[in-house]
Design a protein that fits this description.
By secondary structure, the protein is α/β, with parallel strands linked by helices. It is 42% helix and 18% strand. The site of pyridoxal-5'-phosphate has 13 residues, from α3.
Length: 339
Amino acid sequence: GQAVRQGRALISFCDNDYLGLAHDPRMIAAAQAAATEGAGAGASRLVTGDHPLNHAIETKLAAMKGLPAARLFGSGYLANIGVIPCLVGPGDRILLDELAHACMHSGAKLSGAAIETFGHNDLVDLDEKLAATTSGQCLVLTETVFSMDGDLAPLDAMQALCERRGAWLMTDDAHGFGVVQQSNPAPVQMGTLSKAVGAYGGYVCGPQSFIDLLVSRARSFVYTTGLPPAVLGAIDQALEIIAAEPDRGGRAIAHAARFCQALGLPAPQSPIVPIIVGAETRALEWSAELEARGLLVTAIRPPTVPDGTARLRITFSAAHKDSDVDTLIAALKTCMAPA
Ligand SMILES: *Cc1c(COP(=O)(O)O)cnc(C)c1O
């Protein structure tokens, strides 16, 4: 909820700290306590960098996700580029939602599989492309909650299509974990610990045999240093808080819902609300107007989003107060009023 720009305190409505955990005193204390064991891990987890907290966190993540096993990675980006090439390779096929995150594309390219995109959340297009699979394995990749639009993928229907066509579904839950309650039947699910979890790192959950395989095959696991103890301490504390205080995600979404109602926007499916303004210059003007009123909402421009869809990507947090949301509503109404 808070940010500092050029020495001035602003209320942030553009970070991914949906549960308000990044600045929670319990998180900071847990990081400090773990840091007394060392500032860095010193080596790959396969050498000497395997702090016991790695295993405690993996056990908790698998339980929270309802999947058999989990593996931590240095970041969400490292998880995607390590995991995808362990699922498919040359001669196989990847079907990606056209709005899927850059690091899913990076992992797909590294795998050597043939890559195609399907229309955003378009089950008909996906099924046609799945039906055209001739030989080799097919992997379908999607986000659970789309990072720039805040909408949800139809995961139950996607998994049903994948089962019918013999394909695998893998999801990126970077913006869903701990925030959005959503059924997710995908057998392989990755995510990040740097957004709602408020710390840093990435993970993947899935079948035990697959998780075991990653220890020797995922290059971004084997050839990189383990996470520092302070980060592990914070992650472990966050998972405890998320389990004990499950209403935090709902608070963030309730702020988004009240905001959308006040501005006549469709009801949100997550704490992410895009206000698509089209022209880049206008997105920058509105962002500057909000900053003048003490609110931080950076403009998101192509190539992060498709051409002609420059936007303010507004994100809500459990740490926001109702009065913060009221200030934002009033400021945006001014921006939107015809000059
Ligand atoms: C942020 C993000 C990632 C990368 O996670 P990091 O831990 O920041 O590397 C992956 N996928 C999506 C959809 C993201 O938004």
